[in-house]
Write a structure and sequence with these properties.
The protein is an alpha/beta fold and 636 residues long. The chain contains 21 helices and 20 strands. Helix 8 runs antiparallel to helix 9.
């Protein structure tokens, strides 16, 4: 694997903080690298160093001479006076992009089709677009360009669940594994489902270092827990959080069905005595004592949004967001809400909170209900700009009860990432992620028994999200979450519902995966109807709606599956590789023990470390062989 970008002993200092401290790494061909770390820890700085936008204070960055590079940053860099066509396609001739299946897939997935209807059409100006539309245009521009090295900084911001799933699928298909591709991807993201779906390597930026792990988020959590167990240097609190996260990954995360058997066995050993994240029976019992039987009911509720001036000019009436919906929330219920952008998810939360009145129907609230509502706005903190963080929290309440235990405002602040010194910071000096955490703290200190969270992951890093999930595991009450973060929805809620734009609240027994299937079927039926109306022949390969969401755009013809002989060989290969991996795991365990015993013998420790590296290299080759065999069986 040749390096497209090499970084040697690079250091970057901002103020008095060493953001990167003699970091050495490489971006190789075929690599899909996910970058994680705390807010302000240096993730975006690392991307700037890789792109050449920032020259390190010391060290060297080299790039393959002919390698092209493009990036999508968090700030808007599109020319506001440009048309959508110029911003996305540049001067690319129409016959080139219209005839390229890869580019058409990008336009379908991000802009709604080859006419870009979701962003106002090709001739619309960028300046009239929303932040989410500009984000989609920026992503589309970079994906259309298809550079050798693609750098993405928080690409899932402003994307809905469906958009995140499409982007992950597209990147996996076009930024392939190992020697199968000559390009590479580096992506900074806090979206753990996306990281797990896309990354073949994970880099953690921490304390000026870049720690490297094989695999996506699940493998990163397992490997990090193992490193910390062997090193015995991690505080007990964080170790508990990691094991708790592993318990969740093992017990039900539906996106992780392709983990090799040896990884599952290692995870089982680590979490053998770890209880489930939540005691659901106890939480529901406690929530019922706090709430009684009645929580919030929406009975035969309808909500019509008045038409905008643009709608009036086009002769369109108002949109129906809710159409005679009856929805009763139960004590202790935990519900995730998904839907396309503009379907009315935030409006539904506002209706439940009693802030948006129904056009018709009735909203009924239990007499003991106390609502905590986390909106997407942080302007409510402007009045507290001169206060210290701890004062802003204690203003609400000095102590609260969480998980059956009394905790102080300072203790809860520390659990959500505000260390002792940071608690003395002025609210006006906080970053966007810290303001979001402070909002959550103030809401929890008010002791609500109904909690409504609207996109709670905005501006939060993965470590903070894990801490938030841990806090909410011990919170007893009814929880409603709107989020594009699939991992968070599956981790925090027990069931999901969807808004599909038809005015109904639809139950999803199959979770987010069922929602994506419903959306794919609806899109296929819409395309089929359009072709029928125009007299075009239907696409080959089955009726509309038969395609699988996880596979991306359906191929024009059904691909032939593996032969019976290939399936038998794949099964034999799996059994052989798993035995070899088991033996390697035993050897690795012995070497770890020997290294611990040889801590004072430098030469022996170096020799053992060399043996360990050989085992890791051999294991990586076997893992690739395992995955190839597993793919054959999945296609049978």
């Amino acid at each position: 694997m040749a390096n497209l970008i090499s970084v040697e002993r690079a250091s970057v200092t901002l103020g008095t903080a060493a953001v990167l401290d003699e970091v050495s790494l490489g971006v190789g061909t075929g690599a899909r690298i996910g970058v994680v770390g705390r807010n302000g820890g240096g993730k975006s700085t690392l991307l700037k160093v890789l792109s050449g936008a920032l020259t390190p204070d010391s060290g060297r960055v080299t790039r393959a001479g002919a390698a092209s590079l493009d990036q999508v940053v968090q700030t808007d860099t599109l020319d506001p006076e440009a048309t959508v066509r110029a911003a996305v396609l540049g001067d690319l001739p129409e016959h080139v992009w219209a005839g390229d299946p890869r580019i058409r897939d990008v336009l379908d997935g991000l802009l709604g089709g080859i006419d870009a209807p979701n962003v106002g059409g090709w001739d619309a100006l960028v300046r009239g677009s929303s932040g989410g539309e500009r984000r989609r245009m920026a992503l589309a521009r970079a994906l259309v360009a298809d550079p050798d090295v693609l750098l993405l900084d928080e690409p899932t911001n402003h994307l809905d669940v469906e958009g995140v799933a499409w982007l992950a699928d597209h990147l996996v298909r076009h930024r392939a594994r190992g020697g199968q591709a000559s390009n590479a991807l580096v992506v900074v993201t806090h979206d753990r489902w996306f990281l797990d779906a896309v990354a073949t390597l994970t880099w953690e930026v921490v304390d000026g270092r870049v720690e490297q792990y094989e695999g996506g988020y699940a493998a990163y959590v397992l490997a990090k827990a193992e490193r910390e167990r062997v090193a015995r240097v991690t505080a007990e609190r964080r170790d508990n959080l990691l094991r708790k996260e592993l318990a969740w990954l093992r017990r039900g995360a539906p996106a992780r069905t392709s983990k090799p058997k040896f990884r599952i066995e290692a995870a089982n050993a680590l979490i053998e005595n770890e209880p489930p994240p939540r005691d659901e029976v106890e939480l529901v019992r406690f929530a019922t004592t706090r709430l009684g039987k009645d929580v919030i009911d929406v009975i035969d509720g309808s909500l019509v949004v008045p038409p905008s001036p643009t709608d009036v000019g086009a002769g369109r009436s108002g949109r129906v967001l809710l159409d005679h919906v009856t929805w009763r929330l139960a004590p202790g219920e935990r519900v995730g809400i998904v839907g396309v952008n503009g379907a009315g998810k935030s409006t539904l939360l506002s209706v439940v909170a009693g802030r948006t009145p129904l056009t018709s129907g009735k909203r009924k609230e239990g007499i003991t209900v106390e609502i905590g509502y986390l909106t997407q706005e942080v302007r409510e903190l402007e009045a507290l700009a001169e206060r210290r963080v701890i004062d802003a929290v204690e203003e609400v309440r000095a102590t609260t009860v969480l998980g059956g235990k009394e905790v102080s405002a300072s203790q809860l602040a520390k659990r959500l990432g505000f260390s002792g010194g940071r608690q003395q910071t002025r609210v006006g000096d906080l970053s966007g992620g810290e303001r979001r955490r402070l909002q959550m703290l103030r809401i929890l200190m008010a002791e609500p028994n109904v909690l409504l969270l609207d996109e709670p992951t905005n501006d939060l890093d993965i470590e903070t999200l894990t801490q938030l999930e841990d806090v909410l595991d011990g919170w007893a009450g009814t929880l409603l979450v709107v989020s594009h973060d699939r991992y968070l929805l599956e981790r925090l809620t027990d069931r999901q519902v969807a808004l599909l734009g038809d005015g109904l609240v639809r139950e999803l027994p199959g979770g987010v995966e069922q929602y994506l299937e419903l959306r794919a079927r609806a899109d296929a039926e819409r395309v089929g109807a359009a072709r029928s109306a125009s007299g075009e022949p239907a696409a080959r390969g089955g009726a509309a709606g038969d395609g699988q969401v996880s596979g991306g755009a359906a191929a024009a013809g059904a691909a032939a599956g593996p032969s019976a002989a290939e399936v038998r060989e794949a099964r034999k290969a799996l059994a052989r590789v798993e035995k070899q991996l088991s033996r390697l795991a035993d050897r690795e365990e012995r070497i770890h023990h020997e290294m611990a015993a040889a801590a004072d013998d430098h030469e022996l420790a170096l020799e053992l470390n060399g043996q360990l590296r050989e085992i890791i290299d051999e294991r990586e080759a076997l893992e690739l062989e395992w995955l190839e065999a597993a793919e054959v069986l999945e296609g049978s």
